[in-house]
Every structure is written in C-alpha cells, then in structure tokens.
C-alpha cells in the first residue's frame, strides 16, 4: 500500500485543483466537475480566477446542488450535473433535506416523490425570471394543506409566516430545470430551456469520483460528509479503480490513475482562498490544519475568513474590509512569512480588489 503524509496530500490537492495555474478556460478547469461553490463576494468567480479561468456567464450556470448551496458549473454539463447531484436513494434524500423529512414521512410521502412534486410546482411558477421569495410563496400556497401548512411547509417564527422547507425547495430547483440568475440578491430563478437530467451520470461528473480526484486521498466518510449523504450510499458507489493509500497511519483511497501524483512537490506561489473554496471544503480538516485552535478560527460557525495558501499548505487567514470603492485585506499569518510570500499575498490582494471593482487600500499583516 502506498504511503503519504499530510503534506503530500495537500500538495496533491493543490495541483489537482490547479491552484498553480495561470491560464485556462472553464472547459479546462477541473474543479467545475464537482462544482464551484458561489457563496459570498469572494465565491465562484474568485475561485476560478485564482485557478486562471474566467467566470463567463455564457459558458457557466449557477444552480443549487450539493448541500443546497449555489454552485457554478459549465452550462453544457447541466444535464449531467442534474443526474450526478440528485440523491442516490430515498434514505439519501431524507438525509439531505434534514428536518423536512419528518412531516413528509408522517404524511406517507416519500422524500423523492416530494422533491418531484415541488419541482413540478416550481416549473409551473417560473415561466420567466422570478424572485425566489415570490416563487416560494406561490409553491407554498399550491402545496398547502386544508386549513394547515401541510407536510411541505413550516411555520417560520422570525417571519411570522408559513414557508416551504428551505432544503427541499433548493434541491428541487434543478429538477425543475431552473438556474439562478448571476449576481442577483435576493436570488432570481429562471428556466434553462429544455433542461432535463441525463440518463446516465458522466464519469467525469460522478460526485464520488470527483471528490477522490480533487480532494483525495479520502474515506467514504469524508465523501459522505461533503455530500450530506449516508455512508452506505457512498460505499455502494465506491469506484472499482480506487486504490488504498495510507496517510499518516490512516487507510484512505485515491483513484488509481492519480496515485502516481502523490509525493510530487507542492505547487509554488500564493493564493488567497475564499472562505468556501473547494480546497477548504475537504472533510478532513485535521489534515488541512492540524492545530485545533487554528481550525476553530478558520471554520467558525458564522463569518468564515479566507485562507492564505502558500507552498501548497494553509499559512494563515485573511479577511476583506470594503469601504466604498476601497478594499483592505487583513492577514493573520500563522508563522513568519518570507518576503516572497508577503509579496505574493500583496499581489493576490491587488487581484482580489480588481475582481471586486475596487482599489486596494492596504494589506495589513497582523505580525
């Protein structure tokens, strides 16, 4: 069995995710196979930019998929994405919708059936671009019970109103053939003409394989945690060509074609990773950041910072502060940064400001 250290793993992932790339197109950008989470101002477009690609709306689409989060994909891939990101089973669907499964079960409605029912109502409600709140209200009313909210809805105390459960609504949107209009807040849903899930999942878009390729070596538990799926469903879809790798004494797996890339030198250069960058989405956070206090700081319950990636490893955290058209980037290094690394952080901060349509005011290093 091949062996690897945590440093080997991080170096492999940085290369697999093309964090050493300076030029590319969406077609050549590997992370789009698994989806690029588009949360916050330093979301999808920035994740692509630091990998050398441009978020061209003509080539890309934003849809709610894994964990109900908005993700960027190649527009041409949407039929395959719809098939790849759908729940594997009824048990998987129930896990992905969280507390919404209980009232559905009590009413004798399978969660997969409920998702199709919600999707049909959403498809009818969104013949043209429409704000999320309007769509939710129309669908909620259509699926309400006689004199009560019914199993599809819940009472929202903060709003003092009845709403659809959030996760089924989000997970049904792609089933309904709907995408999110880029740059809209609140989100605007719009139809993707003729979109229907592919009959089979393209191997490149298979979410288990893509996780192993981009975030491996990994265990079924890691993949299940990323997908919000039961471990049993992930094990049933485990690739036949996955090979065992020992990482600091733990048994993990990697696709056979990728095993030879373990142990390669870490990519050089510096990247300012956004808070939800795929590199930070791996479910083995102890591998990414061994120190418990630093993990807590990098992944708080609310208000995540970004991470400084230097030499293929996380070297600190950063936060943006924007005032009008001026952007300040505050950096908290976890060790003394070399002059070259500090220069790399400053160059990345300049690019970040430009991507936000701002001017860089300052880079403030906590040290």
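-> sequence recovered:
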């Amino acid at each position: 069995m091949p062996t690897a250290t945590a440093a080997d793993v991080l170096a492999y992932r940085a290369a697999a995710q093309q964090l050493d790339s300076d030029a590319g197109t969406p077609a050549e950008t590997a992370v789009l196979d698994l989806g690029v989470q588009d949360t916050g101002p330093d979301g999808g477009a920035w994740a692509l930019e630091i990998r050398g690609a441009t978020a061209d709306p003509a080539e890309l689409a934003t849809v709610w998929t894994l964990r109900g989060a908005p993700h960027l994909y190649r527009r041409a891939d949407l039929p395959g994405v719809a098939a790849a990101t759908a729940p594997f089973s009824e048990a998987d669907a129930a896990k992905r919708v969280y507390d919404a499964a209980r009232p559905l079960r009590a009413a004798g409605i399978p969660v997969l059936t409920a998702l199709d029912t919600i999707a049909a109502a959403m498809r009818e409600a969104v013949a043209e671009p429409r704000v999320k709140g309007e769509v939710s209200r129309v669908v909620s009313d259509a699926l309400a019970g006689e004199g009560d909210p019914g199993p599809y809805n819940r009472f929202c105390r903060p709003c003092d109103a009845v709403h659809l459960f959030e996760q089924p609504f989000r997970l049904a949107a792609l089933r309904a053939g709907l995408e999110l209009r880029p740059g809209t807040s609140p989100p605007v849903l719009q139809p993707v003409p003729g979109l229907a899930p592919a009959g089979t999942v393209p191997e490149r878009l298979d979410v288990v394989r893509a996780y192993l390729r981009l975030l491996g070596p990994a265990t079924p538990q890691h993949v299940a945690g990323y997908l919000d799926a039961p471990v049993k469903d992930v094990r049933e879809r485990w690739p036949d060509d996955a090979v065992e790798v020992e990482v600091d004494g733990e048994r993990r797996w990697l696709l056979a074609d990728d095993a030879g890339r373990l142990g390669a030198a870490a990519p050089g250069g510096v990247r300012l990773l956004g808070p939800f960058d795929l590199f930070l989405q791996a479910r083995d956070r102890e591998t990414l950041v061994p120190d418990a206090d630093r993990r807590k700081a990098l992944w708080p319950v609310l208000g995540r910072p970004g991470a400084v990636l230097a030499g293929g490893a996380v070297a600190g955290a950063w936060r943006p502060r924007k005032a009008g058209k001026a952007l300040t980037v505050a950096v908290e290094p976890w060790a003394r940064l070399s002059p070259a690394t500090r220069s790399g952080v400053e160059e990345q901060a300049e690019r970040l400001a430009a991507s936000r349509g701002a001017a860089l005011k300052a880079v403030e290093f906590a040290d």
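The two ends are 42 Å apart (CA to CA).
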